[in-house]
Amino acid sequence: MTYAADRIEEETAYLAFHFHWGVDDILDLEHADRRGYVARAAALVERAAQA
């Protein structure tokens, strides 16, 4: 099974925007780790929106 290229680009842009990480660093992450960081960033955004 492959992971859609557009989904990887979306996750990469999201992490780069929120954590200011470089593209190469993000793409070097394992899939599960990258998804975990996306979830953490989303939680931070949600928490900030509720404040």
Number of helices: 3
Separation, N- and C-terminal Cα atoms = 40 Å
Helix content: over 70%
Q: What is the N-to-C succession of helices and strands?
A: HHH
Report mean pLDDT, rounded to a whole number: 94
Roughly what fraction of the amino acids lie in strands?
A: under 5%
What is the number of strand segments?
A: 0
Radius of gyration: 11 Å
General form = globular
Give the class from helix and strand content and strand pairing: mainly alpha
Largest sheet: none
The residue ranges in which pLDDT falls below 50 over 5 or more consecutive positions are: none
Structure write-up:
The protein is mainly α. Helix 1 packs across helix 3. The longest helix is centred in the last third of the chain and has 20 residues, at 31-50. The chain has 3 helices and no strands.
